[in-house]
Amino acid sequence: MTDEPGRLFREAWIADVKKYFPGDPKPGYITPWDETPEWEKQAATAVCNQIRQFVEISDGNTSNLTREQKGRFVAICWIAQIHKHIDSPKASYVADWDALPEWQRETDADIFEAIE
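-> structure tokens emitted (116 positions)
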């Protein structure tokens, strides 16, 4: 499995965290790809591939989704990966869309659009 989809996801995440996060983000939020934990690389790759497949099977009509719908898709895919890789995740790791901070909702929407 190539890590390029995961790298694309991670680089979009880092760019948007730097754009939207209020203040200085936690170091773990902006860890470069080569230093990212293996489980997180696998999760980023999986979610990137899910977005690509979703766009493909929708014949590109995902462009008609709202930013919120795009962001929600990323968030729910990520939550599934958290449950796959972490036995008892903290509640904040699996928080539903409405509980996410604004910076994270904006970041997720931008990630979808970068991959789309």
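The chain has one domain: 4-115.
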